[in-house]
Amino acid sequence: MPLLQRPFHGDEELGKKDDDHKQGTKGHMGRAWQQRRLNGPRRSNLKKIALVLLVIIGFYYFFKNMPTDLEQPRQRPSFIPPTGPNAPAPKSVPERYDSVSKMADDDASETPLHNFNGPIKFYQLASTLHAVTTRGSSPINQNVLFAAASLKSAASLLPIACDMGIRARNYVHFALMGRDDISMDILKSVNGVGKDCGITFHDARPDFSISSSDWRMEVSSAAAFKHINDFVNPQATFVDSSGEEEVWFLKGLNQRAATLGRTIIELPDNAGQNLMWITLLDSSSLSAWNKASIDFIVHAQPSASGSLMRLLESLKKADFFSSSYPRLTIELPRDIDEPSKRYLEGFKWPPKSDHSSSLLTLRHRIPQHGINSDESSARFLEGFWPANPSANHILVLSPQVELSPLFYHYLKYTMLEYKYAGNNPAVENLLSLSLDLPSTYLNDTTKFTPPVSNSTVGDNVVNTGVSPFLWQAPNSNAALYFGDKWIELHDFVSQSLESQRTRPTPTTLNEKAVSKTYPSWLEHVLRLARARGYWTLYPNFENEDRLVTLHNDLYQPPEEFAEEVKSDLENENDELGADPSHYLSLKNKDSETTLLKTNLLSMMPNKGELPKPWDMPVLTYDGERVEVDGLHKLGLAYSEIFRREVGGCGLDDMEKVKVEGEVGDLFCLKDQKS
Ligand SMILES: *[C@@H]1O[C@H](CO)[C@@H](O)[C@H](O)[C@H]1NC(C)=O
Ligand SMILES: *[C@@H]1O[C@H](CO)[C@@H](O)[C@H](O)[C@H]1NC(C)=O
């Protein structure tokens, strides 16, 4: 199959004849021979592959034709091009090809029969692949590929490719692998692709594509992808998954990409409108498209079926485009109310799963007694463990929230950008991505107003006002926690609980900074964030639309604080509460905002272009605006106190080196034991 070998430089004849290429012409064959002569170092490898393939092809014919038509195979070209350096002169060969192609034409005057199965050659691919100058040979680069076989698919991919090319974050390549005999220039002009798109085109169609069998085209797609991969190393390959694309193409390409370990991104039919944010991502982010996974976890509360059902319904309506569905874990309380029970009986996740296996996990709690905050924190965190901390992340959802249908677009977009983009030192400090923009501080007694930003456009500082921002305060309503940080959190809570058991209560650190309307684990997250200088990215949109809305009508306080919060609220309602500003967030019964429903990019500030982390405002957990350095210094000061009061470290304890994913440097407990 991959009989095309290393293409050659500066062959004028090749360039000239490319334009008047027709199947089966002499020029066609002449080029083939020239190309073959220039095999170069990988020839022997390719020779082996070709031999193996020929054997397979042989078997295929044998079995395919055995019972019915023993004559047929003889009509097909049995010519196997010699590959040695002393290969015989090519002259005698073109006639045979001519006759074969004439026969094929005669057979199928109007619609060609797709029955040709001969060896595969790519005559047009060599020149463009060899001309690739965008560091195609290095395994990590900025190349991305759009590949299509069907012209309809090409037409839906090209505008996206052009947009990405104009953004100039990636080098965009486009490969046509189909049967159609359209010239590349016509393909470009029909789809309005000009020079300004900056797309490098590759004609990856095999010879005799029009009359090729599906099987030959499948093998050809795989082989073409292999060649392109050798020269371009695309970090991600986009294909159309709207249903227009040829089945053989998707099959061949997907299989080969899987064996080569390359990323394939399937674009659904409305990608040109809804998924344009992909054009803003860099090749490094795009290559993580399928590798990064997100688990969802919902902590359901007793007698709160209404909220849970509302959340699950919004999840069902969310658009997951062509991404695989996340796993969903629902933690159920000891007593499940009747409506929840009935709802869960009929609940399917993923929603469109007819044949695919369920991704839903239900967990049910056993103890009947009330749960304290330590137990509750531990139990909640135990709900997830990342197998691969750099790729498995968790989205925490409170049953109070209702999600925008577009929330997964935003989540994947920001996750790929801020976690996986190349050259982003700020990723170290990124603890989580919040979908919720809270209206109050964590103590829930003071209103929170998002900061405005001065972002840089070129060299000018522009006061754009609305901007996403980095805040030290974590979120428990709807936030994605990164796997590596989750592991660190486990260690932190584990050691904190151990310290609480064995050591006297700390003095300065025992004040609770997080309101009891939030679950108890959030306090631990805040402490870790303060000690490490971690932050959470919060969204901020130009209008009132939100990614999530919080419903307080069916609000249930966290189990561990249920008694306290209820009595506080009752007191307030009776005008007896000492502090009327208790639980500000719960008072705004009509704080429910509208959900983002149309187009993500148009709703985001700066037309959806995400600011660099260092251009965003940074806030401490109590709302003070700081520089990144400032946050780091505050973290050092905090961890100093923490080590002494909670960590059990004495003044003479050596400062320990921080280990990735561990908090051993904040605690001296283990040393004392051993
Ligand atoms: C942003 O710009 C405003 C006025 O242009 C200025 O007062 C403010 O200090 C700037 N903020 C930052 C963080 O640079
Ligand atoms: C709650 O937090 C805000 C921001 O840090 C602070 O200004 C306010 O005083 C706090 N309220 C109480 C009651 O501690």
What does this structure look like?
Residues 8-23 have a biased composition (Basic and acidic residues). The chain crosses the membrane at residues 46-63. Residues 1-39, 72-95 are annotated as: Disordered. Residues 79-88 have a biased composition (Pro residues). Keywords: Membrane, Transmembrane, Transmembrane helix. The longest helix has 23 residues, at 43-65. The strands form four sheets. A ten-stranded mixed beta sheet has the order 8-7-6-9-15-11-16-14-18-19. Strands 3-2-1-4-5 form a five-stranded parallel beta sheet, sandwiched between helices. A two-stranded antiparallel ribbon has the order 10-17. Residues 1-42, 62-109 and 574-578 have low confidence and may be disordered. The chain contains 23 helices and 19 strands. Helix 15 (373-381) packs antiparallel against helix 17. The chain has 674 residues and is α/β, with parallel strands linked by helices. It has two domains: 108-287, 3-Layer(aba) Sandwich (Rossmann fold), CATH 3.40.50; 293-666, Spore Coat Polysaccharide Biosynthesis Protein SpsA, Chain A (Alpha-Beta Complex). Strand 6 (293-299), helix 13 (305-317) and strand 7 (327-332) form a beta-alpha-beta unit. The protein is elongated, with a radius of gyration of 31 Å. Helices cover 38% and strands 13% of the residues.
Morphology: elongated
Poorly predicted segments:
1-42, 62-109, 574-578
The number of domains is: 2
The hetero molecules present are: 2-acetamido-2-deoxy-beta-D-glucopyranose
Helix percent band: 25-40%
Mean pLDDT: 81
Query: N- to C-terminal separation?
Result: 64 Å
CATH superfamily of the largest domain: Spore Coat Polysaccharide Biosynthesis Protein SpsA, Chain A
β-sheet strand percentage: 5-15%
SSE class: alpha/beta
Count of discrete alpha- or pi-helical segments spanning 4 or more residues: 23
What CATH calls the topology of the largest domain is Spore Coat Polysaccharide Biosynthesis Protein SpsA, Chain A
Rg? 31 Å
Q: Which architecture of the largest domain per CATH? A: Alpha-Beta Complex
The CATH class of the largest domain: Alpha Beta
The largest β sheet comes out as: 10 strands, mixed
According to DSSP, the number of beta strands is: 19
